[in-house]
């Protein structure tokens, strides 16, 4: 199974262990200035003032050409899971491209959620890797993928710890190069999947907020993605990675916490009911 991840989610995969043994590559995003995101971030280091930027919106024909060339150049056999941010690439456009590529090429677009971009990307590759090992990559479909992730990944309550009281401010920072600074106060945002809503559950030091979530959910194993900080208590953290400050939003620390609940024995149910596109 091959995975392609938007650069807006991960700039690179160097130094991570979670991607070992998986065919994962990063798709370079272009900004409105026609420069790659990674080159803009590299040129911003040390600047004093914030710098906004915009992603370049590709036409449907440009997107189709990109994916067609990707399949040919990589000589991919089997499906390619494209992990993308809906704020950068439109979902409807990708679904049309998926249909146009069939039957020669199989593209499975999977969107990450607002606030959990890095966390979702890591878990998507792990969960679908397990599903593919159980069912066979050739049996993985868009419908089956969506049902499986909705049940096992997106149905859990999750927490995002950031230095902003509003999620909308955090998302705007993903399109602005921020100077490096020390934040004293952080807010913990609790996400409820049933309603798709957020609420501020507390504020304080980032270490105290992490401790609060983990201590209040001792019966759960957690996955954690950290930026600009390290977890002090990892007693019930099963999977943890730290991403560099150059990842979006640039120089903004965060912690993403997600309870793990994956029952792989239920993979067969997906095979029985969801093999059709």
Structure description:
The protein is globular. The protein is built from 8 helices and 12 strands. It has a 6-stranded mixed β-sheet with strand order 9-8-6-12-10-11, covered by helices on one side. The chain has a 4-stranded parallel β-sheet with strand order 2-1-4-5, sandwiched between helices. The longest helix is centred in the middle third of the chain and has 19 residues, at 117-135. The protein has helices at 37-44, 60-74, 91-101, 117-135, 142-152, 167-173, 206-216, 267-273, and strands at residues 2-6, 23-27, 51-52, 80-84, 107-111, 158-162, 176-177, 186-192, 197-204, 222-227, 237-243, 254-259. Helix content is 32%, strand content 23%. By secondary structure, the chain is of the alpha/beta class. Helix 2 (60-74) crosses helix 3 and helix 5 (142-152) packs antiparallel against helix 8 (267-273).
Instruction: Indicate the structural class.
Output: alpha/beta
Helical content class:
25-40%
For this structure, the quaternary state is single chain
Order of helices and strands: EEHEHEHEHHEHEEEHEEEH
- On the 0-100 scale, what is the average pLDDT? 83
Uncertain stretches of 5 or more adjacent residues: 262-277
**Strand order across the largest sheet:** 9-8-6-12-10-11
Judging from the principal axes of the Cα atoms, what is the shape?
globular
Distance between the termini: 17 Å
| Secondary structure: number of strands | 12
- Over all CA atoms, what is the radius of gyration? 19 Å
């Amino acid at each position: 199974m091959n995975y392609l991840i938007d650069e807006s989610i991960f700039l690179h995969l160097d130094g991570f262990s979670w991607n070992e043994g998986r065919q994962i590559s990063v798709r370079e995003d272009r900004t409105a200035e026609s420069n790659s995101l990674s080159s803009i971030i590299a040129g911003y280091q040390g600047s004093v003032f914030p710098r906004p930027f915009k992603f370049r919106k590709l036409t449907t024909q440009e997107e189709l050409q990109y994916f067609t060339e990707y399949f040919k150049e990589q000589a991919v056999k089997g499906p390619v899971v494209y992990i993308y941010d809906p704020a950068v690439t439109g979902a409807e456009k990708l679904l049309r491209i998926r249909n146009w590529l069939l039957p020669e090429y199989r593209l499975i677009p999977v969107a990450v959620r607002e606030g959990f971009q890095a966390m979702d990307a890591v878990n998507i590759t792990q969960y679908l890797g397990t599903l593919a090992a159980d069912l066979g990559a050739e049996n993985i479909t868009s419908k089956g993928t969506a049902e499986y992730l909705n049940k096992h990944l997106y149905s859990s309550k999750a927490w995002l710890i950031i230095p902003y009281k509003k999620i909308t401010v955090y998302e705007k920072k993903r399109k602005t190069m921020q100077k490096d600074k020390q934040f004293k106060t952080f807010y913990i945002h609790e996400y409820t999947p049933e309603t798709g809503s957020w609420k501020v559950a507390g504020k304080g030091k980032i270490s105290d907020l992490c401790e609060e979530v983990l201590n209040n959910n001792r019966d759960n194993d957690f996955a954690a993605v950290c930026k600009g900080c390290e977890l002090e208590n990892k007693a019930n953290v099963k999977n943890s990675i730290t991403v560099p400050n150059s990842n979006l939003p640039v120089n903004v620390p965060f912690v993403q916490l997600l309870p793990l609940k994956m029952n792989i024995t239920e993979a067969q149910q997906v095979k029985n009911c969801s093999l059709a596109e």
